[in-house]
Write a structure and sequence with these properties.
With about 120 residues, the protein is of the alpha+beta class. The chain is about 40% helix and about 20% strand. Strands 2-1-3 form a 3-stranded antiparallel β-sheet, with helices on both faces.
Length: about 120
Amino acid sequence: MTNSQQHAREILDRLAFIEFDKCSEIDLNFNHLPAVAGIYAIRHRTDGLLYLGKTNNLSTRFKGGHKAFTWAWLDLYIASDVRIAIETLDRWGNSALLLELEAILLRATEPPYNVKIPMER
């Protein structure tokens, strides 16, 4: 297992297995999310991982809206049953690693709302 794969496994474990109540609640401002690079998971209370993404700024990524929330709403999820789990990049090194980690995580998990978005090549 490569170093990146090991990092991705550790991130996935934290994103997928953090207690739901410890994930960030969804609100209109997202001021509680840090303004740093990271990988995030949009999770449902019982259905698990809905969407996985990366960003250079977790706070601003959500302030302008996010397609996964729209799809969750269209799929009739109750807002209080959807939360955000985050893993900040400062723990892992540099932004070049972010893209590689996201690709590994997406291949391993195939979240349903990521499938609706064509992956960048």
